[in-house]
Design brief:
InterPro entries: AAA+_ATPase, ABC_transporter-like_ATP-bd, ABC_transporter-like_CS, P-loop_NTPase, PstB-like. By secondary structure, the chain is of the alpha/beta class. It is 38% helix and 25% strand. The protein is built from 11 helices and 10 strands. The structure holds adenosine-5'-triphosphate.
């Protein structure tokens, strides 16, 4: 006899891109992330919200081992990408970060041309057979980041010469150029004006067709606009995780309710 629950479960499992279990993060003696379990779904935008210092960025950085670059940080627990342990010593963090890309709060283009900023990742990962291939990859990434029209006539100009909003879109183009499966965005719009913010939010909608996107944001309006799932963090705990609509209209935990109604944070 067919076990309905098993079938249902295997379908659910397929939709999970990243599964984290019992994650703890310490910076020296500071216990910044406390026993967090979460399942990030594929082709979904997940927002991490919560008051300043609650651990959103720290947890985000666990998902592509960016905390490895912080000497005092220690990560414990189990984090799997498509079922594979990303902290296994055999996993190369550089390869992992090509699969799980990241965009930071402050645009950080390399001191190179616009073209080279985008071409760098595909080059080191051997994604282009020749110059024409690379040109195509660069154009496609810049188009996806809604920067092509502004950049196409000055591809050899330095990336650092662009405006703040353009630089952030350049960093997004750089991140998508390696075709990551997951894109982590740490407050990607905090340095942007409303027009650039709107462009980035449109891009997030588009990216969700192919990728899983996780975004840390201080703006609850932004979380409500762009995400399907929301995780509320407080003092290092993941307090509540669910459908974005439910979290904002019918939170189950009083701490979530206090935060979304502006009483904490
Ligand atoms: N590199 C670091 N070294 C030591 N402590 C850190 C470091 N980064 C973060 N912390 C500490 O870890 C805790 C969580 O910080 P984190 O930046 O993850 O929070 P956050 O929710 O992203 O905050 P914000 O919204 O203000 O960016 C805080 O107590 C913070 O002081």
């Amino acid at each position: 006899m067919k076990d309905e629950r098993l079938t249902e479960r295997s379908v659910d499992m397929k939709d999970i891109k990243i599964a984290a279990r019992g994650v703890q993060v310490y910076y020296g003696d500071t216990h910044a992330i406390k026993d967090v379990d979460v399942e990030i779904q594929d082709k979904t935008v997940t927002a991490f919200i919560g008051p300043s210092g609650c651990g959103k960025s720290t947890f985000l950085r666990c998902l592509n081992r960016m905390n490895d670059t912080i000497d005092s940080a220690r990560v414990e627990g189990d984090i799997r990408l498509d079922g594979e342990d990303i902290y296994d010593p055999r996993v190369d963090p550089v390869q992992l970060r090509a699969r799980v890309g990241m965009v930071f709060q402050k645009p950080n283009p390399f001191p190179k041309s616009i073209y080279d900023n985008v071409a760098y990742g595909p080059k080191i990962h051997g994604m282009a057979r020749n110059k024409a291939d690379l040109d195509d990859i660069v154009e496609r990434a810049l188009r996806r980041a809604a920067l092509w029209d502004e950049a196409k006539d000055r591809l050899q100009a330095p990336g650092t010469g662009l405006s703040g909003g353009q630089q952030q879109r350049l960093c997004i183009a750089r991140a998508v150029a390696t075709e990551p499966e997951v894109l982590l965005m740490d407050e990607p719009c905090s340095a942007l004006d409303p027009i650039a913010t709107d462009q980035v939010e449109n891009l997030i909608h588009e990216l969700r067709q192919n990728y899983s996107v996780v975004i840390v944001t201080h703006s609850m309006q932004q979380a409500a606009r762009v995400s399907q799932k929301t995780a509320f963090f407080h003092l290092g705990h993941l307090v509540e995780y669910g459908e974005t609509g439910q979290i904002f209209t019918n939170p189950r935990d009083t701490r979530t309710e206090s935060y979304i109604t502006g009483r904490i944070g």
